[in-house]
Each structure stands twice: as C-alpha cells, then as structure tokens.
Design brief:
Elements: H1 11-44, H2 47-68, H3 71-83, H4 87-122, H5 128-135, H6 139-160
Helix pairs in contact: 1-6, 2-4, 2-5, 2-6, 3-4, 3-6, 4-5, 4-6
C-alpha cells in the first residue's frame, strides 16, 4: 500500500465524516420536530392537558435514564474496544446490553404503570393516572432505541479508526 498523500482521506475518515453529518441532521430534525409538536400541543390543548403531557414526558425520561443504567455510554466504548481484539466478545456485549436494557425497562414499565395513581396524587394532576398508564409501554422501545444507537456507535467508532497501513481494521460491526 502506498502512503497517504497530504489531504488524502482514508475510508475510515470518510465514514466518520458521513456519520457526523447524519448525527447532526438527526439532531436538528429531532429538535425541530420536538418544537413543532410542543407548539401544536400548546395551541390546541388546554393547560391541564398540556401539563399532563409534560409531566408524562418527564416521568418517562426519568424512568428511561434509570432503565438505561449507563449502558448507552458503556456499550459504545466497550464494543469499540473489543471489536479490535475479539468480535465474539463484542457481540456478547451487545446482546447482553439489549437483554439488560429490556429487562430493566420492562420492570420500570410495570412500576410506572402500577404507581401511576400515586404519581398523579403526588404531582397534583388527576389526569396523570390515565396518561401514564397509556404511555408507560413506550419505555421499552425508547430504551431499546438508545441501546441500538449505542451499539451501532461502538461499531462505527471502531471502524472509523485506521491501522498504520491506512486501511480500516473492520468494515463495520454488523
């Protein structure tokens, strides 16, 4: 292999730049959709209904943070590290992360569903009981999405690194 010329990019560098563009576009799009959703809800619903929505999102965000157990950070870092050495260990880490995240989110879904009447009383919102019971099953897909993103980030971070020969050591995690 010939050495890289000044200004020449490796495949890993191109993948990293493309991934960064996708993350930036996704973040901007997510922020825009979040703003539009809240604007529509604030416009067409009563204050109490919007308040119930906001409290539900807050409770689910707290439950999601607890259910993730820090897996979104640890998985991406450890998968990237283990892909360099042993792909089987990285696959086991990914499946274990999905299993732990699923279990913890299911447990918290049941907890939020069960405690919904008490949370409604504590937060002084009579509508929160029903809204939390309807929204609590969304916790599992929310957690799994975060874990899948962390797993794919771990594979992408590793594939973006190049060896001394200028070639990527693994093309991708999947």
């Amino acid at each position: 292999m010939k050495p890289l010329e000044r200004g020449e990019e490796t495949l890993g560098g191109k993948v990293a730049k493309g991934g960064a563009g996708i993350v930036l576009a996704g973040t901007v799009l997510g922020m825009l959709l979040n703003f539009l959703t809240k604007a529509v809800l604030a416009r067409y619903y009563e204050r109490s209904q919007y308040g119930s929505f906001t409290l539900t999102v807050t409770v689910l965000s707290i439950a999601m943070t607890i259910a993730l157990l820090g897996l979104q950070n640890g998985l991406s870092r450890e998968i990237a590290r283990h892909l360099q050495r042993d792909r089987n260990v990285a696959l086991k880490l990914a499946s274990t992360g999905v299993l732990i995240g699923s279990s913890s989110s299911l447990a918290l879904t049941v907890l939020v569903f069960t405690l919904a009447p008490n949370l409604g009383n504590v937060l002084n919102d009579p509508h929160l009981n029903l809204v939390l019971r309807i929204a609590s099953p969304a916790l599992l897909p929310m957690v799994l999405t975060m874990i899948i993103v962390a797993i794919s980030r771990g594979g992408t971070e590793e594939s973006g690194k190049t060896s001394t020969t200028g070639t990527s050591s693994h093309s991708s995690f999947f």
